[in-house]
Design a protein that fits this description.
Elements (H helix, E strand, L loop, with lengths): L3 E9 L16 H7 L6 E5 L6 H15 L4 E6 L39 H8 L7 E5 H8 L10 E6 L11 H12 L3 E6 L13 H4 L3 E4 L2 H6 L6 E9 L17 E4 L13 H12 L1 E6 L4 E5 L5 E6 L5 H12 L9 E4 L14 E5 L5 H8 L11 E9 L8 H22 L4 E3 L14 E5 L7 H9 L1 H9 L2 H6 L6 H16 L5 H18 L3 E2 L23 E4 L2 E4 L3 E2 H4 L6 H10 L2 H14 L5 H18 L12 H21 L7
Parallel strand pairs: 2-6, 2-7, 3-4, 3-5, 5-6, 8-15, 9-13, 9-14, 12-13, 14-15, 16-17, 17-21
Antiparallel strand pairs: 1-8, 10-11, 11-12, 18-19, 19-20
Protein name: Superfamily II DNA or RNA helicase
Keywords: ATP-binding, Helicase, Hydrolase, Nucleotide-binding
GO molecular function: ATP binding; DNA binding; helicase activity; hydrolase activity
Length: 671
């Protein structure tokens, strides 16, 4: 049966080495940027996986301990395996004034000592000598329930993967943050690779977020500044049936790979159970030679005779799991492990620098999770020129009972990929007037836009400069916007109504003028990054100048938008408002699936766009719909008709058709 593979993103980077080069204090580019803001009480560091956030925290925390009156530092990570990122580190060899040291007794992520972690957490604050403690989020949540707010006076609380917090009143981690902010003299450093939650709940309340000083370092800055990694490829592989029958088509055992299998509740799960799925994947990799019972590592012989070391992180048995994690925490050589099979682990903060490929089965509901998984293979490493992320997705089929769920999953994948394409590409600066010259301006990535509103407040400048990708993530995963990807919604509806709606929801304190300023930047950034930059003949051109002296010649930078070639030096807001910013995603759908499946997607989207019950559809079908067809010589109504009453009839007809199709397939219809 036919499969469909598609590379959504394939970007080459300049390999400048800037991201990994260190200054006189031993700091990389992002770390130095964060260290400049070390005196801020509340600091939000948003930077991609592998950019060095953990060491940035070490530099800032040590300065606060020595120079800012902070007495203790608590570092909280989402899972124990990430604790290794904050292990003892010699910083003085690089030129810093102190080393980072964590007493073993207060490293509560060490799998060798699981004794009374809550008790040791409380004991830490009573010790006059202990300065640093590392724990899991769960330990922080549980232990602080038994501590008073003033316990965190003169304490720095550092939370890794900060998107685990939530503005929701029932979020325990969010409650800890608010207690430290408002009821103690403590400081907070929040670190995250993606300041966005898949459930749509804000990470912080607007009034809380306003107190944090943001440091943003994007994916493009990091990857373009690497020394070894040159290419990043993000792709999707669509399959029919069971993923186990097709995983061999994309799993390359010559590449260091992390395989994330679907949870039992995901549609991609086979029903065999996670242990059987893991065993079946191992059979695809090779034949079992032996298992090292001192490390938990499996040795599998590939068809060509190579011996592959495979780590199983799906296993739940605690002793076995701890043994494998301990092995992975101490690997020091490229050949120590070849493939890791995981379910909920080996995502956030998991450090395996030799990883070349992440193969993920099933749609991930959160863009944050996608970014975190990609981050496992984007660490710079000698000998690694290309990193790949491949997402295996079950193709929606008309015969499936859960057609709506399948289509929704599919569109989540496409919108996530569209956003990732934009995150990985260079940032563009948009100007309002041509004579507003800046001698330090990157002319290759600057576009003049007629009618562009200048940013009038500090709030809008912060959003545009450091939060635009997160805002686009919220827009691209908004239910109404996702449905608009069917192509039947007008560009004006999307640009002038749906996008402003999401902006108002995310930033309720913005006035209408500020909403419009942000809206224009979202549109420009989305459309420019989603289309090819070409020369006058339509040939793609590099968006990176060959050398620092290159300047774009006037009139030769064109952009292909909605099958039109437009001079990007003459863009206007009026033009942008007439273009569907998400057309790129629809094109991806169109070329990635067969006509039958695409029709299922379109029909399901069209049906879901209207809040119509089956009873209402039947009533319209028996009366007004029959009258319409009779009056128009047998012509059926169209969902694109300008008359809303006609569109309503078209939706009723589509709902009846979908019902009939399901019944013919022997499937029950669920309203």
């Amino acid at each position: 049966m036919e499969q469909f593979s598609n590379s959504i993103v394939d970007i080459s980077y300049q390999q400048t080495g800037a991201a990994t080069a260190v200054n006189a204090l031993g700091m990389r580019e992002m770390q130095a940027l964060a260290y400049e803001a070390r005196d801020k009480r509340f600091l939000l560091i948003k930077a991609p996986p592998a950019s060095g956030k953990s060491r940035a925290l070490m530099f800032i925390a040590l300065d606060k301990l020595v120079n800012q009156g902070i007495k203790k530092v608590v570092v909280a990570v989402p899972e124990k395996s990430i604790g290794r990122s904050f292990k003892n580190t010699n910083l003085m060899n690089g030129g810093f004034f102190a080393n980072w040291e964590v007493p073993p007794y207060f490293n509560l992520t060490d799998v060798k000592n699981e004794q009374d972690k809550k008790g040791r957490f409380k004991e830490f604050f009573l010790s006059s000598k202990a300065k640093v403690l590392v724990c899991a989020h769960a330990t922080l949540r549980n232990a602080t329930k038994e501590l008073s707010d003033d316990t965190f006076n003169d304490t720095l609380l550092a939370i890794d993967e900060f998107h685990h917090t939530s503005a929701d009143a029932n979020s325990n981690l969010g409650d800890v943050v608010r207690r430290v902010m408002y009821h103690s003299s403590g400081h907070i450093i929040a670190m995250t690779g993606s300041y966005f939650r898949g459930d749509g709940i804000p990470v912080l309340r607007p009034e809380d977020e306003a107190k944090f000083f943001p440091i943003t370092y994007n994916y493009y800055q990091q990857l373009n500044g690497y020394k070894y990694l040159k290419n990043l490829i993000l792709g999707y592989h669509f399959y029919h049936g069971s993923y186990l029958d097709h995983i061999g088509e994309v799993l390359d055992t010559h590449k260091k790979t992390i395989v994330h299998i679907p949870s039992v509740n995901q549609r991609a799960a086979t029903g065999l159970g996670k242990y059987q799925e893991t065993a079946d994947i191992m059979k695809v990799i090779g034949t079992l030679d032996h298992k090292d019972y001192n490390t938990g590592i499996y040795y599998l012989k590939a068809a060509d005779g190579r011996m592959l070391k495979v780590a199983d992180l799906v296993e739940d048995e605690q002793k076995e799991r701890n043994m494998v994690q301990a092995y992975l925490q101490n690997i020091k050589d490229r050949d120590d492990v070849d493939i890791i099979i995981a379910l909920g682990t080996a995502k956030e903060g998991f450090d395996w620098q030799w990883c070349e490929m992440c193969l993920t089965v099933g749609v991930r509901g959160s863009l944050t999770e996608v970014i975190q998984i990609i981050g496992r293979c984007t660490r710079d490493c000698e000998g690694k020129e290309t990193a790949r992320f491949v997402n295996m997705i079950a193709m929606p089929e008309a015969e499936q009972a859960e057609v709506k769920v399948a289509v929704n999953d599919f569109l989540k994948a496409i919108t996530a990929s569209l956003l990732m394409e934009q995150v990985m590409a260079p940032s563009w600066k948009f100007k309002t007037v041509k004579d507003d010259d800046d001698p330090h301006e990157d002319l290759a990535h600057t576009i003049v836009v007629e009618g562009l509103k200048p940013l009038s407040s500090a709030k809008t400048k912060t959003i545009v400069e450091s939060q635009l990708d997160d805002l686009k993530a919220a827009i691209l995963q908004d239910d109404m916007v996702v449905k608009a990807l069917s192509g039947s919604t007008t560009a004006e509806t999307i640009t002038q109504h749906l996008i402003p709606k999401v902006i108002r929801e995310r930033y309720p304190d913005l006035n209408e003028g500020e909403v419009e300023e942000v809206r224009q930047r979202v549109l420009l950034d989305t459309i420019i990054k989603g289309n090819d930059i070409v020369d006058e003949k339509g040939n793609p051109i590099s968006t990176i100048p060959d050398d620092d002296d290159d300047k774009p010649s006037e009139g030769n930078r064109l952009i292909k938008i909605a099958n039109r070639f437009i001079n990007i030096d003459k863009l206007s807001i009026n033009l942008i408002d007439t273009i569907n910013p998400f057309q790129r995603a629809y094109e991806v759908i169109s070329k990635s699936v067969d006509a039958k499946t695409l029709k299922v997607i379109q029909d399901t989207i069209a049906e879901q766009k209207y809040d119509m019950t089956l009873e209402q559809a039947i009533t319209l079908f028996k009366g007004p719909l029959k009258e319409y067809v009779a009056a128009h010589d047998g012509k059926v109504p169209s969902v694109d008709d300008p008359d809303p009453k006609v569109r309503e009839l078209a939706i009723a007809l589509q709902k009846i058709k979908n019902l009939k199709q399901r019944k013919l397939s022997g499937l029950e219809y669920e309203e």
